[in-house]
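1st attempt posting a full record on here, be nice pls
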Amino acid sequence: MPAVTRVKEDSESSSEDELEDHICIAWSGCSRKIPVVVFYAEAIVSKDVNMRSVGEQYNLGFKIVRTESRLVRGILTNHGFHEVHPNSNDFNLMWTGSHLKPYLLRSLQDFQKVNHFPRSYELTRKDRLYKNIQRMQQAHGFKNFHIVPQTFVLPSEYQEFCCSFTRDKGPWIIKPVASSRGRGIYLVSNPNQIPLDENILVSRYINNPLLIDDFKFDVRLYVLVTSYDPLAIYLYEEGLTRFATVKYDRATKNIKNQFMHLTNYSVNKKSQAYVSCDDPEVEDYGNKWSMSAMLRYLKQEGKLYGFDVLIDSNLKPWLLEVNLSPSLAW
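the predicted structure (as tokens):
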């Protein structure tokens, strides 16, 4: 689905007649009188003059703050948007890699859009995500929200974790509550291996993952939320399948091998066994596949299932985390 952003209203530089038939303009609002810009992915390669003219004709601007995304910049510039300084307030779209302060949100004008909602950390911080899912389990039934492994927030829930550990020796996976790209993640088989001087998440490790050619993998899904009231969610039709670079073996001696247990690209690209694929037409080679390629492979193997992020050998999907600013590298 094409992305949209509101066009700045300027009676001296635009008119409804000029906008009416433009390929990159759609109409929104109760009376369908609000023009919005429609972005097309093919503009990246086609560099269509008509697509570019919309941003140039209406002097549309953007700024990118505290992040870097060649894909976003390429889409915008090929639709005629011009980039302004990160400190400028003269923009139609702000793309940021961090949480927005309330005063920035309050200062936005009607024609200005940003790429994050306030309090998005309620989903993207690992501890808040788990606590919110736990609330939903309590309110609507555990079985309806049994989508994450058993998890504890330490050090506040250390005693509860120790009780569970006596019943199940593990392994358990440790994650910082507010990190990304696999940083600070490791596995343990003993509570004594866990530091208690910082807030961390400890989750039961899913040690029976579904494997492809003996390698562990997970699936990254790209989700766009355009509104919370009413709730409007778009799931992109394609996704990524990310592979570990060492064949999976649940033996305890391998517990510290990140290249076997973690599927993060930022981790596995450092492995000597990492294989990249530079041909965009090849979807099932190397350590990154398209989601479609993974589904075709499993269909050939006779496996039909519903999935989320990590899939175990019983074909049950498990939600591992939600990313605030997933990589949009191209």
